[in-house]
Amino acid sequence: MDENGESDKTTPSGLKEPEIDERLFFAETNSPVIPNKKTTSQKTEHYHGHRDRLRQRFKSNGGAALEDYELLELLLFRLIPRRDTKPIAKALLEKFGSLAQVFGAPVARLQEVKGIGESVAHDLKLLSQISQRMLKSELRDKQLLSSWTAVIDYCHAAMAFEEREQFRILFLDKKNALIADEVQQTGTVDHTPVYPREVMKRALELSATAIILVHNHPSGDPTPSRADIDMTTLIIETAKPLGITVHDHIIIGKDGHVSFKGLKLI
User: In the predicted model, what is the mean pLDDT of residues 229-250?
Assistant: First the structure.
């Protein structure tokens, strides 16, 4: 058995044993099954019946009928088709704490969980990126100041579980619609260098008339530091003569966020 749980057994002729095609995940078929003496005589893995029951619950009642570990288990069926994925799903949630943190975890840390190989870890990160793109698409062609919940959801998905600080800027036009979303700097676990002149240079290049500053605190606590406040003040002072408005500075933590405007720091 390889690192992703795939069987490497062969028949006496040197061919691999028949494999279950997990692409038929929710497929139904009326085709008759022709018994094969070799396969029917083999012991059925104990988790196959459990998989069928879990799939049927999802088909009948949707995701609301399943616990978080069961949804993750259902996904892992596809990524690790020949392994009991229930203990792997539970181990992931125990290690990282939530579904959001599982998908936000770095590839190297995901591989610390027994049963998660490199390819499966990258598949989980792919799904994370798809989720972020979906959330970002909700911001397109909308006035961000009237879509604040969508802004926070996107920023949280994109940044909350990064292990280093990122400084992100949302560039807006005069209707407060999103022009661009860019990570300007990536720093250490507790500091990101920010250069107000570079921020303004990029805003002018994009013809932005307003910006929203966003950065994350990998510690999890979104409380602004003195350095955060001073840096924000400096950017506001640099932007004002150029006719560029700083609408807000959002700090993203693992379990929440703070808004400088909400704290009356802007």
Answer: 95
